[in-house]
Amino acid sequence: MSNAKYPVAVDAHTVPIKAGRINYPPGFAERTSSRDKRALGDLFGLTVYGVNMTTIRPGGMSALRHAHTKNDEFIYVVEGEPTLVTDAGETLLKPGMCAGFKAGTGDAHHLVNRTSRDVVYLEIGDRGPGDEVTFPDDDIVAVKKDGKRSFFRKDGTPY
């Protein structure tokens, strides 16, 4: 039985770019302004995990370097050569390479585009409740409650 509410298949490049940016507090959001996400999973009504096709323009980054307490993440590079930055150091990725980030390890990560070409990658992550995100390089912590993410300073004061 099919559900006519959702498409069967689409060209991922035709999916509209998500409106708005991550709701980082002022002073943080601008750092990810060279990134565009296409919410592929949402288009099909997926609720257990998310799938985004993300483009990072030259000089941009995927997100602030972060680690999740309860949500796993996985990336697959489609185009370009991003630099993966983790607690272990830096790794140059090429198309066809992938990386995974197990929840609860504390290994913070993000991608940086240090090239003159766009980087395109798929990111897949679960959407389970109660996730907290730490950002070791910045004075920021994110807490997800009732499907909404709120940001705090590391001392607990809200932004």
Instruction: List low-confidence stretches.
Output: none
**Main beta-sheet strand count, sense and barrel state:** 5 strands, antiparallel
Which range does the strand content fall in? 35-45%
Rg calc: 16 Å
Strand order of the largest sheet: 1-2-9-4-7
What is the architecture at the second tier of CATH?
Sandwich
Number of helical stretches of at least 4 residues: 1
CATH class, anyone? Mainly Beta
Order of helices and strands: EHEEEEEEEEEEE
Description:
- The chain has 159 residues and is mainly β.
- The protein has a single domain (12-152), classed as Jelly Rolls, CATH 2.60.120.10.
- Helices cover 3% and strands 38% of the residues.
- It has one helix spanning 40-43; strands spanning 35-39, 49-56, 67-68, 73-79, 83-86, 89-92, 98-101, 109-112, 119-126, 132-135, 140-145, 148-152.
- The protein has a five-stranded antiparallel β-sheet with strand order 1-2-9-4-7. A four-stranded antiparallel β-sheet has the order 3-10-11-12, with no helix packed on it. The chain has a three-stranded antiparallel β-sheet with strand order 6-5-8, with no helix packed on it.
- The chain is globular and about 45 Å long.
- The protein starts with 34 loop residues before the first strand and ends in a 7-residue tail after the last strand.
- 21% of the residues are buried.
